[in-house]
Automatic annotation (TrEMBL):
This is Addiction module toxin. Gene3D superfamilies: RelE-like. Its EC number is 3.1.-.-. The active site is at H84. It comes from Helicobacter canis. It holds the Pfam family YafQ_toxin. GO terms for molecular function: hydrolase activity; RNA endonuclease activity. It is an enzyme of class 3 (hydrolase). One of its GO terms (biological process) is mRNA catabolic process. SUPFAM superfamilies: RelE-like. Keywords: Hydrolase, Toxin-antitoxin system.
Length: 90
């Protein structure tokens, strides 16, 4: 089981979500922390560019989680959560 860490930004973003969305998010995070693979509907994938080393998965079609997993230390860090446009402002 991975230890779950969160950033201050993630905590602030999470508070803005509805209770239903927080429940879905918590379920996905628990799956990740358990070391299990996510279902294909979550479209889990590595990020590139400035976010190389991080991963992204879909909680809902336009609700995404950016996270990192440290396999050696068994730490799952939740970095950001929000819509695609909120997370990837260009």
């Amino acid at each position: 089981m991975f230890e779950i860490h969160t950033t201050a930004k993630y905590k602030k973003q999470r508070k803005k979500l509805s209770q239903d969305d927080r429940d879905l998010l918590d379920s996905v995070i628990y799956t990740l922390a358990s070391g299990e693979s996510l279902e294909p509907k979550h479209r889990d994938h590595k990020l590139t560019g400035e976010l190389k080393g991080f991963r992204e998965c879909h909680i809902k079609p336009d609700l995404l989680l950016i996270y990192a997993k440290n396999q050696n230390a068994l730490i799952l860090t939740c970095v950001e959560v929000g819509s695609h446009s909120d997370l990837f402002k260009g």
